[in-house]
Each structure stands twice: as C-alpha cells, then as structure tokens.
C-alpha cells in the first residue's frame, strides 16, 4: 500500500512540475517589458486561471497523500511495558546458563570428575 502512495505522489509531483513550467510569470520582469499584451490575446487568461487552480489542487493532493500514507508505515514491535523507559527493546536473549560448561576449578588443578553412581539401596531387614 505504501508503494501505491509513493507512485501517486511521484505522478502528482511530475504533473505539478509540468503545470509550473507551463505557466507564464505574473511579475513585471522581462515578460512585462517585451510584450505585456500577450496575456489578453487568444484566451490565455483562462489558461492561466486553469493552470493556477490546477497547481493549488495538485499541491493539496500531494500534501494529503503524504499525510495519509504515514498511516500505512509499519510500526516496529515493542515488548516494553507502557510508560517504561527501556531503550533496548528488541535485544536477543542469551541461551539459558545450563548450556554453558562450568569450570569451577582453580587454575592448574584438574576438574573434579563426575560423582560415581551409588549402589542401589538394600531392603530393610
């Protein structure tokens, strides 16, 4: 779903860039000096109104898609209780201590051997 929103945002961005590049500048810069009458001939005034409205609509669409797509971003799984400040949430747990060999002998001494099995108990007489 997130890829779908990304494609829509990219498509709307490209169309917005085309709308902005096609528009005539509204300032008095060079376009006002070399032919200021061009905005009134052959229906160009209606075209600029359409392009300006289209620009605003595309800006609103892109902003809405960006905000709405944030609802579809997957959240990481947490194991901490609400209100705790534990920052190490997803650390792997070590295996139980019973799996590790123990060596309690002092250096230079041999490890004690396993106790021998006791003989079975004799019946009481």
Describe the 3D structure.
The protein is mainly α and 125 residues long. It has a domain of 55 residues. The protein is built from 3 helices and no strands. The longest helix is centred in the middle third of the chain and has 26 residues. The termini are far apart.
Write the layout of secondary structure elements.
Layout: H1 2-22, H2 30-33, H3 44-69
Helix pairs in contact: 1-3
Q: What portion of residues belong to β-strands?
A: under 5%
Whole-number average pLDDT? 74
* Rg from alpha-carbon coordinates: 38 Å
Total strand segments: 0
Largest sheet: none
Q: Any idea what the shape is? A: rod-shaped
The end-to-end span amounts to 82 Å
Helical amount? 40-55%
Ranges where pLDDT stays below 50 over 5 or more residues in a row are none
Number of helices: 3
Structural class: mainly alpha
Give descriptors for this structure.
125 residues, mainly alpha, 3 helices
Brief rundown of the structure:
The chain is mainly α. It has a domain at 2-24 and 41-72.
